[in-house]
Amino acid sequence: MRFSHAGLCTGLSGLLATARALRSSQPRKQALAVTSPLLLEGTERVLVTGGAGFIGGALVRRLLRCSEAQVFNLDKLGYASDLTSIGEHPRHQLLRVDLTEAEATAAAVRQADPDLVMHLAAESHVDRSIDGPAAFIESNVGGTFNLLQAVRAHWELLPPERRERFRFHHISTDEVFGSLGLTGRFSETTPYDPRSPYSASKAASDHLVSAWHHTYGLPVVLTNCSNNYGPWQFPEKLIPVVILKALAGEPIPLYGDGANVRDWLYVEDHVEALLLAATRGTIGSSYCVGGAGDHGSPSERTNRDVVETICALMDQLQPQGAPHARLITRVSDRPGHDRRYAIDAGKITAELGWTPRHSLQQGLEATVRWYLDHLDWCKQVRQRAGYSGERIGVTSTA
């Protein structure tokens, strides 16, 4: 199944109309808390951090395609960064800056002069955080602190009208909540309980953003999402790894017993949620964002289920290698591997009208097809990063 760019813009317009209707039915006190003009209906200056990454790149593409915003893309261009999907655009400007450098970060914020900041820049691979946690603390904690300080200084100097419109949107992960048992789902009231260096660094950054709101009045919105997947994801994460291993006829690694459960969110659905939260979310609030399964079911799947589904799709699209499931190979489990994640997205649905539009089966089929059509890109980014598909994060010490 193919998805059109035009449909993605149309879908967002429908969600925004729903959000307006829901907002008009809310008590007046709550409605007054949302004062930002609709991002996609006006010309805005938007600063996206991490816009050369997987989710950030999808967000930048959507802003360029479906709005008149001037987009400033702050990215250090790390190993997983890539600008191929964005290309050249008159409203896109790259600011090559590392957030760990405070002065450069402050200068970039002054240059962008944003009305909206969407903060996605982060080290994000759990396995890499096991091998080298220092980079995650420096980037995700120190970098967020530097950005908050720079943005606060910018916001405090804005004229009243622009200051009233300004928003800082911090994008985070459901991994900050730890691991679930057999029942229950994460929500906005779930206590934090991070279990890996990555999730601990993201939890710290969440707390910093919340503190800057409560202490300094910075108008912030936070979102915590489940596992993202889709086109243009650097091929070190589960889904692209499985696709490429299956295509090459190589063993497909399955951690432990394969029964760890994840909630899967198609990246374009996530982008729609981000734009709604950024422009219509209640200041100081957080929203949990999760995916959709098939036939309206939750998108929770064991890792084994996901791997077997991809193998079945590969059997259809690459029958010469079938059955690809014969390549599934159990390997030692990840240290501290969280057993189950699941998202209750009821708040963002009730308050903003967001629901994911792609079922897991649809999203996986589109993703598998995309990777099979973009093997040259996969080879290029792997070579540039010096990564050949080997396993990382096999030790609990660094």
Chart the SSEs and their pairings.
Layout: H1 5-24, H2 28-32, E1 45-49, H3 54-66, E2 70-75, E3 92-96, H4 102-112, E4 116-119, H5 126-131, H6 133-156, H7 160-165, E5 167-173, H8 197-216, E6 220-225, E7 227-229, H9 238-248, E8 252-255, E9 261-266, H10 267-280, E10 286-289, E11 300-302, H11 303-317, E12 328-331, H12 346-352, H13 360-373, H14 375-385
Parallel strand pairs: 1-2, 1-4, 2-3, 4-5, 5-6, 6-10, 7-9, 8-12
Antiparallel strand pairs: 9-11
What are its keywords?
398 residues; alpha/beta; Rossmann fold; three-stranded mixed beta sheet; 14% strand
CATH architecture of the domain at 5-229 and 266-293 and 341-357: 3-Layer(aba) Sandwich
Helix content: 40-55%
Shape: globular
CATH topology of the domain at 5-229 and 266-293 and 341-357: Rossmann fold
Round the mean pLDDT to the nearest integer and report it.
88
CATH superfamily of the domain at 5-229 and 266-293 and 341-357: NAD(P)-binding Rossmann-like Domain
Task: Give the topology string: H per helix, E per strand.
Answer: HHEHEEHEHHHEHEEHEEHEEHEHHH
Tally of contiguous helical segments: 14
Give the strand order of the largest sheet, numbering strands 1, 2, ... along the chain. 3-2-1-4-5-6-10
CATH class of the domain at 5-229 and 266-293 and 341-357: Alpha Beta
Q: Compute the number of strand runs.
A: 12
Estimate what percentage of residues fall within beta strands. 5-15%
> What's the main sheet like?
7 strands, parallel
Distance between the termini: 43 Å
Radius of gyration: 20 Å
- Structural class, by secondary structure, is alpha/beta
| Residue windows where pLDDT falls under 50 for at least 5 positions | 1-7, 23-38
